[in-house]
Write the structure tokens for this entry.
Amino acid sequence: MIRVLVWNEFYHEKTEEQVRSIYPDGIHAAIADFLGKEEDITVRCAHLGMESCGITKEVLDETDVLIWWGHMKHGDVPDEVANLVRDAVLDGMGAIFLHSAHHSKPFKALMGTSCNLTWRESGDSEILWVIDPAHPITRGIDRFFRLSGEETYGEPFVIPNPDKVLLIGNYSGGEVFRSGVLYERGNGKIFYFQPGHETFPTFYNESVQLIIKNAVRFVAPTYRATVTCPHVRTVNDESYVI
Ligand code: ZN
């Protein structure tokens, strides 16, 4: 079983009626709902209002894939929590950062850049084009899928060159954006996925759900250990013992 932890800021759903009407139990609950129907996935949730944001080393040790959604309250996540997430990914935990999590502390810590982008809320529609149809994360999508409304994100997206760009978003207002990008950091795999603005029902879209399900399976750890920096003797030393 792949153990998923869905983390949500859980702010807009409590303060804006429009968002609450789409995600009455929170964005995390909507994501946990479709992931929880998969036979090989178990899901837990955590949010900003919990003690230590619901994230401790013990919780992360029991998490194979962390999914992160945040927007307005990135600064309220303690640096210690962000560092725990970063270190867990470096050890091998998988991570999926959704939409405005591009500015979250753990994502920025793992990227090392500003992760800035251009944006606009004007009700643009979006076509997400598959760049690599053979990749496990885009499997089942064919060439593209459409979202009738999304917040517009545009280039330049100030991220390191991805190991793979899997999806390009093209908005009706003209922008393009690297909407699905993949990284390895240490032993861990990281997928950033752009759709998911809180005023649109994006997480009920079947193609979005398929990509997140595929991504959970892809970034799940295959090896997990802290790689340290030991001073070692030569293997030819007769006293060398394994
Ligand atoms: Zn947004």
Remarks:
- The two ends are 32 Å apart (CA to CA).
- The first strand starts at residue 2 and ends at 8.
- The pocket of zinc ion is lined by residues 71, 99-100, 151, 197 (CB under 6 Å).
